[in-house]
Every structure is written in structure tokens, then in C-alpha cells.
Amino acid sequence: MSTTVNTARPLSHSPSMRNSTRFSTYSTAPTLTPSIAPSHLSTESADTDSNKADPDSSSTQTLKVVHSQLARFDDPRLQNQRYVLSEGKADEHSKLALGAKLERALGRRMSGQDAVFTPKKAKTAVVA
Fold first, then answer.
1. Where is the composition biased (Polar residues) (predicted)?
2. Contact (CB, 8 A) for 101 and 107
């Protein structure tokens, strides 16, 4: 029985213990080889230096620059001038928006395409 890389714990599903065959999703060919798909439980890749958070990394610097540029747009004088709807006014606006939405939906209906009932023509017997 084989063991894992990091511990002496035996693997629960080693290739030698497999009794059934696995079928490939793409080719439907049977295979007995184990899958080498990456695992989110793997601790081996998490310990590498490239995955550690570096405060001076380029992505962190980029975020700091974007944050500082967005902070320049925040002007308290303009925030004081901003109009805030009262609860009654917000309720009225939502009702008007719902009415407009309903009007648009009704306008898209197939109006004028109703069936027209016409009287059937009487069958005439052909005398030969």
C-alpha cells in the first residue's frame, strides 16, 4: 500500500487497490491510472513562496493606486448637495416605475392579432 507525500498515512484509494475501471469522460476508454487533478486540499502547493501574500506585490500596489484615485472623487461638499428621497417619495417612484414597466409589457403584446371568425362557406354538391 502506498503512502501520501507529506505523511506516512496510507492512501485510501491507491491504484493497486482499485477493483473497478474508470472511464474517461471524453473518449470513454477504460483506465486504471489515478487522476492527477489538482486538489484544493493539497498543502504542498500552499506552502510555496509564490502563494504567500506580499505587501509590496504589483497587484497590491495597483489596488492602492486605484483606491487613492477613487478617493479623490469623494468630495464632501458634493455629498451635502446630494438629493435623498424621502420614504414616501421613494415609494411613489417605485409605483411609477412599476406602472411604466407594465405599460411597456402591455405595449409589446400582440394586439390586433386576435382571431377573426368568418362563416364557413357552404359546400356545393357537384353534379356530373
1. 1-45
2. no
Q: Taking the model in full, what pTM does it have?
A: 0.29
Residues 6+ apart with CB under 8 A from 35: 22
The phi, psi pair for 30, rounded to 5°, reads -70, 145
Residue 31: strand pairing partners = 22
Check pLDDT > 60 for residue 31. Answer: yes
60: part of which helix (H) or strand (E)?
A: helix 58-73
CB 41 within 8 A of CB 60: no
* Residue 64 to residue 71: CA distance in whole angstroms: 10
DSSP 10: B
Closest CA to 37 of 28, 25, 49: 25
What per-residue string of b and e applies to 2-38 under the rule 16 or more CB within 10 Å gives b?
eeeeeeeeeeeeeeeeeeeeeeeeeeeeeeeeeeeee
CA dist., res. 59 & res. 54, Å (int): 9
Contact 34, 48 (CB under 8 A): no
